[in-house]
Amino acid sequence: MVVEEAKNNINGIKSSFPIVLGYLPIGFAYGILGTKSGFSILQVVALSLFVYAGSAQFIAISLLSSGTDIITLIMTIFIVNLRHFLYSTSLSQYMKRINRKHIPILSFFITDETYAVSITDLKENNEYNEKYFYQLFFMSYTTWIISSFIGAMFGSFLNGSVNIGLDFALPAMYIALLLMQISGYRKVFISIFSGLLSISLMYILPGNINVIVSAVIGAGIGGLIDIWTKNS
C-alpha cells in the first residue's frame, strides 16, 4: 500500500520522461540556433524562461535576427500559439477538482508536449490533482531551460557555418506524441485527414492559422463520427 501510494505521488515525474528525452535535443538545437543568430546566452535563456514555447521561440529568433518590428513579432507569435486555446479547453474538464488559484500558474506551462502527455494520462485516470501537473510541467520546463542553456553555451563556441543536423528533432517529437494518442481506426482517420487538410491550407491561409482550422474541423468531424457511432 505504501509502495503504491509512493508511485502515485510521482506520477507526474514518471510521465515527464518522454518529454524530457525529447526536450534535450530540441532545446539544445534552439540554444545553438540562438547564439549562431547573434544573440547572447542570457537572451537565449531568457526566451526559454519567459516565453517557453518551442516552435514560437525558433520563429522569434529567426524574426528578430532579420530585424522584424516588434508588432509583427508579437502578432506572429500570437497566431502561432493560438492552438493553446484548444489545449486549455480540452484540459479544463479535467481540472475541475483543482483549486482555482493553481490554474493561472499551471496554464503558463501548457505546451504541445505537456498537453499530449497529460491528456493521455487523464483519459485513463482523471483523478490526478495539481501535484501531478506541477511535477509534469516543472520537470519539462526545467529540462527545456537547461538544454537551452547548454545549447547556447555550445553554440557560442561553434563556427557560424557549422551545421550539426538537429533540424529533425522538433517534428520527430511531434510525430512520437501523436502516435502515443492514436488508437482505433477513427483516430487514425482523423489524424490523417487533419494532417492532409493542414498541409493543403498552409498554401492558402497566412501564418499558422492552417493548424487551428484543421484542428477544429478534425475535432468536429471526430465528434460527429462519435455521435453517429453511438446512434447506429
What does this structure look like?
The protein has 232 residues and is mainly α. The protein has two domains: 170 residues, no CATH class; 48 residues. The protein has 13 helices and no strands. The longest helix is centred in the middle third of the chain and has 26 residues. The radius of gyration is 19 Å and the shape is globular. The N terminus is likely disordered.
Order of helix and strand elements from N to C terminus = HHHHHHHHHHHHH
Q: Roughly how many Å is the radius of gyration? A: 19 Å
Give the strand tally. 0
Major sheet characteristics: none
Alpha-beta classification: mainly alpha
Q: Helicity, in percent?
A: over 70%
> On the 0-100 scale, what is the average pLDDT?
81
Task: Describe the global form.
Answer: globular
The amount of beta strand, in percent, is under 5%
State the helix count.
13
Q: How many angstroms does the end-to-end distance come to?
A: 44 Å
Tally of individual domains:
2
**Poorly predicted parts:** 1-7
